[in-house]
Amino acid sequence: MLRNPIHLRLEKQEAWQHVIFMASLCERMYPNYQLFCVQAGFGDPAVYRRILDLVWETQVVKDAKVNFDLQLEKLEECIPAADDYDFYGVYPAIDACVALSELLHSRLSGETLEHAITVSETSIRTVAMLEMTHAEREMTEEELNALPSIEEEWDIQWEIFRLLADCENRDIELIKGLRADLREAGISNIGIILQQ
User: Fold this and answer.
1) pLDDT, position 80
2) 27 burial class (0-12, 13-18, 19+ CB within 10 angstroms)?
3) What would the pLDDT profile of 68-84 be if each residue is shown by its tens digit?
4) This prediction's pTM
5) Which domain holds residue 106?
6) CATH number, residue 145
């Protein structure tokens, strides 16, 4: 799978930075899930939205209590099965769920680094899979890394990483600002626009 020095650099960050990094990437995958739900008449994208909002809340509201076991159960009911659909949108939707599931597992286990790396890899895989689907062939890591869409995804991941790396301590205003920016942009890692 596509490797990037960001995965080594994440080791130097604290757990809260990993959580915000993961939440940010989930925020960028949410429009893929939302669009799939609308197109397929599947589930309710608001469930994903609410679960992700709860994670953000734990990072900005002191003593926010969330039952992550329960949230994981809710999420698992919202994951589409690839075999049930014959259109491409199911795959980015599943990836979005995988990423959010990793984020919830990190809250349950207290281990954040490996989950943060997996979320990063999941997001880049969504982009890579779309490119290979368009090209109708497998591509090497070199070929993929040369693509503007892959480059852009890594750039955005690095941007989020650096923003968090510059914080000595958990900066509530920065976290709120990052969430607001990602929401307002409303564009997914594969260019899907959030439906308001």
Assistant:
1) 98
2) buried
3) 999 999 999 999 999 99
4) 0.97
5) 9-185
6) 1.20.1590.10
